[in-house]
Amino acid sequence: MFPIAVGLNHQGTPVEIREKMSFQPSQIQEALKKLRNYPALEGVLILSTCNRTEVYAATTDVEVGIVSIKKFLSAHHGIDEKLLNQYLYVHTLYDAIRHLFRVTAGLDSMVRGETQILGQVASAYQQANDAEVTNKAINVFFQTALAVGKRIRTETQIDQHPVSISYTAVELAKQQYGELQGKGILILGAGEMSTLTIRNLVAAGASTVMVSNRSYDKAVSLAEEFSGQAVRFDEMDKHLETVDIVISATAATHFVILPERMKTIMEKRQGRPLLLIDIAVPRDIHPDVKEIEHITLFDIDDLRGVIDRHHQERELAALNAEKIIEEEMNRFVKWHNSLFVVPTIVALQQKGQQIKDAQLERAIERLGGLTPKQEKIVRSMANSIVNQLLHVPITNLKEYASTSQGHLYTEILQNLFDLDVEEETKRQMTLVNQHISPVRHGRAE
């Protein structure tokens, strides 16, 4: 049973193709069941996010399995297979496992180490289970990948360094106040940046978010999306007197908040601190506002400085993550290769058992008149001889299994002892070693 992965992502595939190739959540169950019925696919899974669409499968025939997945994707999305082939990448066997590990760890994402992908892989695995289209191989692949992803996040903390403006703004707010629940938060602006900021705020536990915008209707629409409160732009001051945090991202071409205005507001606040985060370009908040007592002001340049440091930290964490992936790949390869020597080991043990039994019966018959104790000693000696004779070749074969010469030693042992090993097992073992590439550090693509 061999792993394969076929898909496309943000690297080299335009958004108009990615949009057409995405699966809606409501489509997944039906799509998985259709995919499972294609030739040579024994277990399947679909991973569909905003930046990637990938099909993972366990197949009995690598080449047929790849063809099946491509035909399914072409038919399901109504895209010509020749056009689709321009964007699709294919990973087979251990490269497919390495790719899956890197995806789950966030190393193949647009933002390295991003947090969402681990949950998305877990969700895709659950959907495949619910559709009853997985098998033992898919279960092992994805349970291992999820464990690797969790290990990388725990040991490298790669996802603890925010690298987006909106996320960093929220992280700064958390650093200033700790928990955001119960804090009064006012968002100025109702565009894309404000939307992303509110989404991050809500995810961080914020419970009281207000939105103010020159277009009150847009403020209402955005506030309703997140169960917040809309504030008229000309009524902003009375809310500035009560909130704890202001994050500004308007499209204004001039300063929206000036020092004189904030001095009056801070007098009414009577010493209560106020955090202002200006993520607009051009800036919304006059830089002199930071000179006012009890105000802390961060602007876009402050955030970019934090992001640059976090990028460096993520890259360092990514290097450590790649090392962990190679450790896990070596462990996986050793385990997986051991599966192919098991039939040979079993056949060798059975051969030894048959020879021992035949020779024992003949010897006992010739000796005749052995007492039970004497017969027990003879049988024990025969068992000991066979076990000790086979111990070294079996132990060495297990060691060789994880090397590029594993199949060679296995075949030699089969031929030397004339072992009866199923032809399908031999074929699978040969195919793995034809496709295997050395376990290496870096991208699978």
TrEMBL record:
Pathway: Porphyrin-containing compound metabolism; protoporphyrin-IX biosynthesis; 5-aminolevulinate from L-glutamyl-tRNA(Glu): step 1/2. It holds the Pfam family Shikimate_DH. Keywords: NADP, Oxidoreductase, Porphyrin biosynthesis. SUPFAM superfamilies: Glutamyl tRNA-reductase catalytic, N-terminal domain, Glutamyl tRNA-reductase dimerization domain, NAD(P)-binding Rossmann-fold domains. It catalyses: (S)-4-amino-5-oxopentanoate + tRNA(Glu) + NADP(+) = L-glutamyl-tRNA(Glu) + NADPH + H(+). The keyword Oxidoreductase applies. Residues 6-156 form the Glutamyl-tRNA reductase N-terminal domain. InterPro entries: 4pyrrol_synth_GluRdtase (IPR000343), 4pyrrol_synth_GluRdtase_dimer (IPR015896), 4pyrrol_synth_GluRdtase_N (IPR015895), GluRdtase_dimer_dom_sf (IPR036453), GluRdtase_N_sf (IPR036343), NAD(P)-bd_dom_sf (IPR036291), Shikm_DH/Glu-tRNA_Rdtase (IPR006151). The keyword Zinc does not apply. The record marks 99 as: Important for activity. Residues 321-419 form the Tetrapyrrole biosynthesis glutamyl-tRNA reductase dimerisation domain. It is an enzyme of class 1 (oxidoreductase). Residues 171-306 form the Quinate/shikimate 5-dehydrogenase/glutamyl-tRNA reductase domain. The active site is at residue 50. GO terms for molecular function: glutamyl-tRNA reductase activity; NADP binding. Substrate binds at residues 49-52, 109, 114-116, 120. NADP(+) binds at residues 189-194. One of its GO terms (biological process) is protoporphyrinogen IX biosynthetic process from glutamate. Belongs to the glutamyl-tRNA reductase family. Possesses an unusual extended V-shaped dimeric structure with each monomer consisting of three distinct domains arranged along a curved 'spinal' alpha-helix. The N-terminal catalytic domain specifically recognizes the glutamate moiety of the substrate. The second domain is the NADPH-binding domain, and the third C-terminal domain is responsible for dimerization. During catalysis, the active site Cys acts as a nucleophile attacking the alpha-carbonyl group of tRNA-bound glutamate with the formation of a thioester intermediate between enzyme and glutamate, and the concomitant release of tRNA(Glu). The thioester intermediate is finally reduced by direct hydride transfer from NADPH, to form the product GSA. Homodimer. Catalyzes the NADPH-dependent reduction of glutamyl-tRNA(Glu) to glutamate 1-semialdehyde (GSA). This is Glutamyl-tRNA reductase. The lineage of its organism: Bacteria, Bacillati, Bacillota, Clostridia, Eubacteriales. The gene is hemA.
